[in-house]
Amino acid sequence: MRVEVDGAKEGWAGGVPGVEDVTDGGGGLILALSEDADDQVVLDAARRAGRVRRFGAVRPSLAEIFREAVA
Question: Phi/psi of residue 65, each to 5°?
Answer without folding.
Answer: -65, -45
